[in-house]
Amino acid sequence: MAAPSDLHSLARSLPDAPGVYTFHGDHDAPLYIGKSIHIRRRVMDHLCTPDEARLAAMTRRFSFVRTAGDIGAQLLEAQQVKLQQPLFNKRLRRNRRLCTITLERGELHIRNVHDAGDAATYGLFPSRYAAIEMLRDLADDHLLCYGELGIEKVTSGRPCFRHALRRCVGVCCDKESKEDHRQRLLTALIDRHVQAWPYTGAIGIVERTEDMQQIHVVRNWSYLGSADNKNAAKRLAKPTPWFDRDGYKILVRPLLSNGCELVDLSL
């Protein structure tokens, strides 16, 4: 078992390549999981950062998993943090049961993201309360009506309290049409639009270095694993019932901008 004073020597033996690394403590417990395109360099940075002295003092060894690029490293890091729940990782510890806002036939709903189906969705929230708070903020910024948004009861045809304060244009008392209010709501929500999964099934994202190739298998924004060839990747391409927020944040830009090489893994 290595003592903390030996950590720099251990870190220098790590590869200067893309991948995911783990700091292990007593009894091999995972303390921290991170990713980098330069594993050795990033681990050395941790050891030289005064704010991370407690992590270094508790560390007994490092382990790593090579990847063929940054996308694979990000996906594997997010997966392993949720699976192993290391002591020093907090950002990626998330509940899969997320809420989203949908607009269907002009009506606004807050739903579990798994139940949204093909409806247009806006935002990803850890709870219904968080979704309502975002709607309140939007209403305040854009003079929208709490009653029309469904977050406050109002008497039909009578102005809401916020209208008297000039915080609502007046859809509640027929001073604004429902269609005009809906269009202003859509404009306010546009930056929070969540893209539906744009493929019929699973796809593989190909990454390569000089000495390795990986196909990262993804479906419904959820990472299912990596393989070194298409046949092995197809065996990982099982249906997945959940939407993964971390996978979405990692993948939405490269996938929708055609910024990576893809293979079709539809079953």
Summarize this structure briefly.
This protein has helices at residues 7-12, 39-47, 53-58, 70-84, 128-142, 146-149, 161-164, 178-189, 230-236, 245-256; strands at residues 19-24, 30-36, 61-66, 99-104, 107-112, 121-125, 193-194, 203-208, 213-219, 222-227, 261-264. The chain has 267 residues and is of the alpha+beta class.
Layout of secondary structure:
Blueprint: H1 7-12, E1 19-24, E2 30-36, H2 39-47, H3 53-58, E3 61-66, H4 70-84, E4 99-104, E5 107-112, E6 121-125, H5 128-142, H6 146-149, H7 161-164, H8 178-189, E7 193-194, E8 203-208, E9 213-219, E10 222-227, H9 230-236, H10 245-256, E11 261-264
Helix pairs in contact: 4-10
Tell me the series of helices and strands, N- to C-terminal. Answer: HEEHHEHEEEHHHHEEEEHHE
The protein's oligomeric status is single chain
Number of helices: 10
Ends distance: 46 Å
Q: Care to count the β-strands?
A: 11
User: What is the topology, as strand order, of the major beta sheet?
Assistant: 5-4-6-7
Helical residue percent band: 25-40%
Average of per-residue pLDDT values: 90
